[in-house]
Amino acid sequence: MVLQIFVVLLILCQIAQGQITYNYKSGGSDWTGTCSTGQSQSPIDISNIQGTCDNSMTIDVSLYNQNVQTSVVKDQSGLSSAGDFGSLYAKDINGILVGYEANQIQVHIPSEHSIDGSGYDIELQIYFSIKKEFQATLSGQTPAVLNNAVVSIFYTIDSTQSSNFFNVWTPSSIGTNFSFNPATVFNGTIDSTNQYYSYQGSLTQPGCDESVNWYIFPQSQPISQIQYNDIKKYIQGDLTFAGGHGNNRNIQSVNGRTIKLGNVQCEEQFIYFFSFFILYIFINYFIFKLL
Ligand SMILES: *[C@@H]1O[C@H](CO)[C@@H](O)[C@H](O)[C@H]1NC(C)=O
Ligand SMILES: *[C@@H]1O[C@H](CO)[C@@H](O)[C@H](O)[C@H]1NC(C)=O
């Protein structure tokens, strides 16, 4: 009886704090509310993106080139770090430029998103929320501007290389403060010229709010086996976390959503230039003949 009252009080406390208790034992298939009824959920498998190439998509991830203090936190979502790591300026799939500031880094093992059906060993997600000045000018607009953005970076175990980020960010430091330079540890991985995918989806944890512009960089980065094992130990290796499961939510239905590709030479553009090239050769040929 005392135990029941305690449990009820605990649940009431969590509701009061706006926290929802959940776990990854079935990849989120038992999560309720928007998580089960939403039609624009994340993560998704990114495939069939032909015809959605858009040369006007732009992204600028301006992480601070100075030390930022943070710590590694382990909770029901897995491993994360809170802090302001810098800014993001990016166009959403409707062509609207939005500015955001970073507030959290989450590490998911294995990856949540997949590309053409293939997942990755780790997906690092940098969470951003809209800057006040952008919210003020863009609110009430149609189509609606989403308040959050996440930049995803994939990591694949590599036998010869290690990750700069996971050199400074280690779960063994849980609870103790440390500093790192965001611009340095992600140097080269999320540059404004790298190819990326973008679509509109949700948070990948309850309440699964459909408020996220996703920016996913498909070029995976190296992580050493030792670095990888150090993270796995705290998630799949901790049977009290999710009974041996990772902290990745199951893949959700795309439901006909648009996925755009940024920083690639679009096919249409290529055919356009290619036909000019052919025309140029023909003209030269005829001029040559006339002479
Ligand atoms: C750790 O970092 C947090 C956030 O920056 C700060 O509030 C806290 O005082 C720091 N703790 C120590 C012991 O430095
Ligand atoms: C990123 O790498 C380039 C080339 O290796 C280097 O010139 C630049 O200083 C680096 N930037 C940071 C912030 O570490």
Automatic annotation (TrEMBL):
Tree of life domain: Eukaryota
Keyword Signal attached: yes
Signal peptide: 1-18
Transmembrane segments: 270-288
Domain called Alpha-carbonic anhydrase: residue spans: 20-263
Swiss-Prot/TrEMBL GO biological process terms: one-carbon metabolic process
Classification via Pfam families: Carb_anhydrase
Single GO term (MF): zinc ion binding
InterPro entries membership: Alpha_CA_prokaryot-like, CA_dom, CA_dom_sf, Carbonic_anhydrase_a-class
Record-linked PROSITE patterns: ALPHA_CA_2 (PS51144)
Protein keywords: Membrane, Signal, Transmembrane, Transmembrane helix
Name of this chain's protein: Eukaryotic-type carbonate dehydratase
